[in-house]
Structure formats: structure tokens, C-alpha cells
Amino acid sequence: MKKIISFLLCVISILTIMPVTAFADDEYFTKEQIEYYKNLGLQGTTVNVYNWGEYISDGSEESMDVVSEFERLTGCTVNYTNFESNENMYSKLIGGGVSYDVIVPSDYMIDRLVDEDMLLELDYDNIPNMKYINKEFQNLYYDPDQKYSVCYNVGTTVLIYNTKLVDEKPDSWDVLWDEQYRDKVLMFNNSRDAFAIAQAKLGQDFNSLSEQDWTQCAQLLAEQKDKVNPVYVMDEVFNLMESGEYAFAVYYAGDYLLMYENNEDLDYCFPKEGVNAFYDAFCVPKCSKNKRGAEAFINFMHEPQVAYENCEYIYYRSPNITVENNEDSSLYGSDVIYPKDINTQYFKNLPQNIIELENNLWTKVKSGKLSASNEKQEKRIYTECSVIGGAIFVVVIAKMISNAKKKKEQDLSDLY
Which residues, 6 or more positions from 364, have their beta carbon under 8 angstroms from its beta carbon? Predict the structure, then answer.
């Protein structure tokens, strides 16, 4: 009897000191999922992920720490870094000296990266969760043969405003040029999104090939700088708009909901002139040194549990059908995330001459070189220089005439 009691006590002691997880179900994943990632053979490898800021569930506020869970299941290390704009990401890639395995560009940038042969074709045998991607978000215009990308999120730009500082609900981009809101406007600090607002206001195609159109938009943005002195921001928009100090901000619809959680005085509208609708997607650049790990990460991001957690954390529309059809989702049926009957345009890759013109004009807009005050100053300087130049010309001519007259008189004197 004593031996039996001793044995039972020993078993109880062992059970007490052993980890609970050895006998409990995993917090997030099924045994099949755990086995799948364990058997990929990624232990000891590294996956370098380059993503937008504030664009993944990171474990804060009791959310899933997606990166840590991927590391736990695969045994590999994730080196996770952020960029603020497609252009910033592109500059890093084109500059060389970097090795990213997963990048998350937007539609038009994917188009450009494909044109410039900077992406690897994906092996969908390694991305079985492609089965969860809504057919509506496959074979899109920037990747018609579905070779290079897996859609991550879908969204639009939106006009955000502070009801404490704005009396009437706006319905147009015009308010961003209203002088009564001077020093109270937050604008995109990237050229494509900023120009799109001017293009919408002017009724232009977001993908215009007319240099005159882009110049006209730059002049309109310069006019805005003169009138309201906007602050150009990207992720800084969260703290600045939530602080209640600014009347307007232009940003992405999903981010409005995050701002609203921290400041219920904020509201939004989709301006009647139109907004940009966009897709962000996972791609593997040619500089990748761990393509297998990259495809595993992409697949993991579309596990139903992970896609749901990301959606709940960042508030963007997921192309994952398990999320979209989940009535428990806080975004289910949201008018911000699933807008109806709004005027939208998509960005496409532009030819090099337009890209260079856009970049040049954007630099001039931000530096104030296209502002009306700067033009007036340049005109004044030009006028003053012309007057001075004219005066110098008159003096020189008069001097030449005087010298010629003196020489003629001297020649006549020599004759006599």
C-alpha cells in the first residue's frame, strides 16, 4: 500500500513540475498546423520581412504576436523591419546591399517591380492557404497570371476630420485648400497619394501620361502649401490627429478606425471627386536568400487564426474569406472597410519619364519652389536683374559711343 501511495505521489509531483502546455491544447493552432510548420525544416534559418509600419498584429493589447508565433512554430528567426512608403521601400531595394525575403508593396509598385524583373515567382505548393483568398482578389491587374503576389489587405484613402474644429461634414477635397484651416491640415508625405488628391480635385486620371496634367497638379499642391501650410506625414498621423490639434488628415480608411478608438471626435468621408482604392500584397524580391522561409511566412499570414488577428489589430479589409465571412469580426459590415457606391481609381505603374517628373515636381512642391510667393520673388529678382542689366547695357553703349567719338576727333586732329 505504501508503495502505491509513494508511486501516486511521485506521479503527482511529476505532473506538477511539467509544463501545462505538454498536456493542454495550443492557444491558437491545431496539431495539424503545428506539425506542418515544424516539418518545414526552417529551424535555425532567418526570414527578413519588410512591411509597412503598424501593419501586423504585434502582441499588444492582448492580440496575437504574429511574428513570435511564426518563430515558435517554425524554429526560425524573423528579422522584421518597417518602411513608410512604397517609394521608400523601392529605394532600399534598388540601392542594393539589402536582403529581404518578404516585402509588402502596393499594387502599382508590384507592377513596377515586375516590369523591372525584381521579383521571384512564387511556388504555390508552399502556400496552400491560397485556397482562402477570395477569387475577387486573385489575378488582379498588376499580377494577372498570379505569379508574384498574394494579396494581404485591401483599402482606400479617406478624408479624416475633427468634428470639434470642423462645423460641417465635408464631402470634397476642397476643404484641404481652405485658408481658415491654415496649419491644421495633415497631408500624405508620399508623392503618389498626394498627387492623387490633386488629380481627383481636377478630375484627372490617376495614371495620366500627360506631363501637363502632372505639372498642373503640382501647381495645385503648391497653392495648397501657400494657403494652409500642410504638415506632410505618414505614420506620425496617428498621434497628431488623435491629439485633437488638427482639423483634417488624409490617410487610409482602416487607420481611421484606429484613430477613432483614441479620439471619438474624429469622423471621416469619402470625397465626391474620388479616392484611391488599393491592394497591398506579399511578394518575394530577387534579393531573397530564404525563399522557402518567405513562402512559409506568407502562408502563415493567411492561416485563418492569423488573418483574423491581423484584421482585428490593423482594421483593414482582409481578402481571406474566413475573415470576411466571420460575423464575430469587429469589421463585419463596416461602412468604412466595406464602402458602397464610392468613386474610386487604382494606381498603375507609370513610364519612367512620368515617374521622374512626378518626383521632381514633388520635391519642388515640398521645398516651396513652386509657391506663388516664390514665383513672385523670382519674378521680382528677374525684373530687377533686367533693369540692372539694361542700365549696364546703356552705360556700356554710351561709353562705346564716347570712345568712338574721341577716336574720330583724334583722327581728324592727326590729319591737320
Answer: 218, 222, 370
Q: Which residue positions in the chain have pLDDT lower than 50?
A: 1-24, 375-385, 387-389, 391-392, 394-396, 412, 415-416
Cβ neighbors of 166 (< 8 A, separation 6 or more) are: 175, 247, 248
Given a contact cutoff of 8 angstroms between Cβ atoms, the answer to whether 166 and 266 are in contact is no
CB 159 within 8 Å of CB 251? no
- Using CA atoms, how far apart are residues 338 and 301, in angstroms rounded to an integer? 21
The continuous run of DSSP H or E covering 233 comes out as strand 231-233
The helix-helix angle for 191-202 and 86-95 (nearest 10°) equals: 140
Closest among 209, 275, 287 to 48, alpha carbons compared? 287
Inter-residue contact 64 to 312 (CB < 8 Å): no
Model pTM score: 0.81
Tens of pLDDT along 272-314? 999 999 999 999 999 999 999 999 999 999 999 999 999 999 9
Sorted by sequence, the CB contacts under 8 Å of residue 183 that are 6+ apart come out as 228, 229, 231
Looking up cell 542594393, which residue turns up? 96
Please answer whether residues 291 and 120 qualify as being in contact, where contact means their C-beta atoms are separated by less than 8 angstroms.
Answer: yes
